[in-house]
Amino acid sequence: MTEKEIRSNFIEYASQAELNAEDRELAAEAIAAMNNAYAPYSHFHVGAAVRMSNGQIVRGSNQENAAFPSGLCAERTAMFAAGAKFPDKDMRAIALAGGVHGRLTDRPVTPCGACRQVMAQYQAKAGKPMSVLMVGAKAIWKFERVDDILPFIFDSI
Questions:
Q1: pLDDT at 154 over 90
Q2: Residues 14 and 139: beta-carbon distance below 8 Å
Q3: Alpha helices, H only, the chain
Q4: What's the distance, CA 25 to chain centroid?
């Protein structure tokens, strides 16, 4: 038997002011996207923003449905819209933010497993890392690649 360890690297920022200009813009777009969420059941609004290789930013928000689980997370809404709108461009970065009644959570919101796997698929398609920015009111986490939030990416087919 051999015991192994998995490590995940990320940078924690105390505020959006500490981010570089591109990340600050992407965080602001994710926060703004929260306003477009349809969350009549959970009342938890999540916004996401994807930066494409051509510099364009595509927003998404969570969309709930009474026939659970027919809704969709903000991250996948943004990525699928970006993939449909810019099929020949790579996704370079994604930011997500969430909260209740327009107020960000103190700690960053983290993506579900399905969203992480979709991020991994688009990262693999690009052949280069896609950074992930998780935005909270009192902390922002930046991961340089999806592998750091999903260490055992499904890629067996």
A1: no
A2: yes
A3: 21-33, 74-85, 113-126
A4: 14
- Catalytic position from the list 3, 12, 22, 75: 75
Residue 115 sits at the vertex; the CA angle it makes with 109 and 117, to the nearest 5 degrees, is 130
Q: How many CB atoms lie within 10 A of CB 53?
A: 13
pLDDT band at 68 (very low <50, low <70, confident <90, very high): confident
Give 105's contacts (C-beta < 8 A, 6+ positions apart): 98, 99, 136, 137
* CA angle at 29 for the pair 24 and 35, rounded to the nearest 5°: 140
Classify burial at 73, counting beta carbons within 10 Å of its beta carbon; exposed 0-12, middle 13-18, buried 19 or more.
buried
**Which tokens is 156 given?**
């067996």
CA dist 134 to 15, 104, 110, 115, Å? Answer: 12, 11, 7, 13
Taking domain 11-148, whether its CATH number is 3.40.140.10 is answered by yes
pLDDT(118) > 80: yes
Is 75 noted as a catalytic residue in this protein?
Answer: yes
Q: Assess contact for 137 and 104: CB atoms under 8 A.
A: yes
Taking the alpha carbons of 156, 124, 46, 20 in that order, is the dihedral positive or negative?
A: positive
